[in-house]
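Issue 218. Parser rejects a valid record. Input:
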Amino acid sequence: MSRMKPSSYCCAPLALGSLRASAVIAACAAILAGCAVYHARPLPKAPNLASVPSLSVPVARLRVSWLKPQTFHPAMGLSETNVITLAVADNPELKAARLAAGVARAQLLVAGLLPDPQIGGGLSKSSLLTGYNVSVAEDIAALVTRGATERAAGDHLRQVHLNILWQEWQVAERARELFIESRAATRLRPVLDARRKLQSRLYHADMRMLRNGDSTRDAVTADFDAWKSAETAWTAFELRENRTRHALDALLGLAPDVRLRLRGNSRPDQVSRTQYRAALANLPYRRPDLLALRAGYRSAEARLRAAILAQFPLLRAGVTKSRSAGDGIPSIGFNVDLTLPLFNRNQGGIALARASRAELFRSYEARLDAATGEADTIWGALRIMQRQLQILDAHRAALMRTAGVARKSLARGRESLKDYVPLEVSALTTQAEAIQLRASLQKAQAVLATLLALPPDAGRRDINTRRDTLPDANPPIPPGYHTSRQRRS
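Output the parser choked on:
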């Protein structure tokens, strides 16, 4: 019996050790199962451009609030609203910007996570007993700064979303400008073509008259110069039209050889002086880029608070359980590690946070000043172009009447081609100028609406109150990342 006791006595520690080893292996397997796995993703080797317009992002997910659900029929032609919606949904740069928001969401996730506890342990062995010690410690300092860090990350995420919103507004404006240019080119093409053909007709007629001795070299030279000027204007028009078409294809993420059919015209609302002044006064509460800078400033203030909190004594607390290998008596203890702020005191982090906040403060001031100046410049240009267009339209109407009378006289043989062509060319030139000036006026109105963060129907809305801000100026934080500490932008 005395021989069996040591044997049975030795089996118990062996079984206990096997259970502990199994538990450790199971815990390690559970931890590793939750780890991320790396997957390679090679870069594309060819452009990712479409041959037909497509809407890959539902309109409901876009933050440009005045875009409504639409039905697209590219074969029947795209309206201005169709082009704007496709640009905001399928623009390659906007797609990349929306993916970049995932970095800010990941930063918010990191800021909200609790610090992992640290576990330590050791073994000691004597002739009869095996001793051990196990400790669990937690970083208290990370818990102290967690609230400020999380608020900073939340405001940074809002800043990223608002910057994307501002990019969407700018893409919408650019799409509107290109639509206006394309439709103006459609109206301008027959006018410029008729002018150059008339100049060519007059030049060749004068050449025949010169050979018959009925004209002079000076007259032929003047007609040739006028013809070449009309041809030069035609070439410049074709180059502009080509640039506009390719720019619109690139904005929509289409292949360069795609030719879109456009329909309808752009009729931006005219903003009254009262509405303009109200929108200008409410600019800090309306424009997404200014709201983004405000969110960034709040994020910088939160980071500064976190840096100031980090200068105080840093604590690390833990619990230790041990058993001596000598006497086998178990014990439990509590330990604290304290970092004394004697030399560092997080002075570098505080200085960096203060400098970042000061930079954002000045950036916000500069952006607000520039926005006010740009809006006032466009507002003044609108007044000038509107007056000039009224004068040009009146002059064009008079010239077209005169050219119409001369055209009838030419058909009846009562007027010569040399007397008729200058009148018709003058009417066509004035008509071309009016088309280009009207397009410039419409583009300026679109730019002003973007600078003031106004929807297309701003002329029919009351914007005299500060509460009339962008409905999506406070884009929500995606589910799973929202916390009760985060404030609204």
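Fixed in the parser; the record now loads. The radius of gyration is 37 Å.
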